[in-house]
């Protein structure tokens, strides 16, 4: 079955080349031109990668990203925008995006990034060619906000990084759901706690996908625990 890509872009002269290029690559592509249509679509249809423009006519793309994650969307999100500032990039990642591509961009680069996102988010430890014999330990560089499996960097969103950092600091101990929500999300957060489960699910997929020995384990009714692998340095 073809992998499903959703292109969210209101400018036809940008959207059409994207759609044609991705279809030639063999993807099942859907094109939408507004935030509301996008949220309705992902609520009822599976999507592997969403290519999301920030400058939509009805709402900011960051709001689309945030609301999609809150509603349980677990596919990869790549933001495409003319906003090239570092602040926009950081905010986009904190809202749940996996990657950020500034306009103008080459179609070859976009294709490569889509392929990389599909590899990262695919389930199963063999996705990137790592079997049990290639299991790797996890290393977290907190000041740089970077995570490594062996020598390979693991691309995490802002929230995924913060959840992992807390779990790693309490390795082999259960961290409650309420603490994770309080420490990672804003104190005034009124959204569904399902967003934590979505974040944990995506974090698990990414760690498994690069063959790390560490596992995020759910303790029913309590919280989550990071176990396995050597203590993080």
From TrEMBL:
Coiled coil: none
Keywords attached to this entry: DNA-binding, Phosphoprotein, Two-component regulatory system
InterPro entries recorded: CheY-like_superfamily, OmpR/PhoB-type_DNA-bd, Sig_transdc_resp-reg_C-effctor, Sig_transdc_resp-reg_receiver, WalR-like, WH-like_DNA-bd_sf
Superkingdom as given in the UniProt entry: Bacteria
MF terms (GO), sorted A to Z: phosphorelay response regulator activity; transcription cis-regulatory region binding
Every Response regulatory domain range: 4-118
GO biological processes: regulation of DNA-templated transcription
Occurrences of domain OmpR/PhoB-type (ranges): 130-228
Name assigned to this protein: DNA-binding response OmpR family regulator
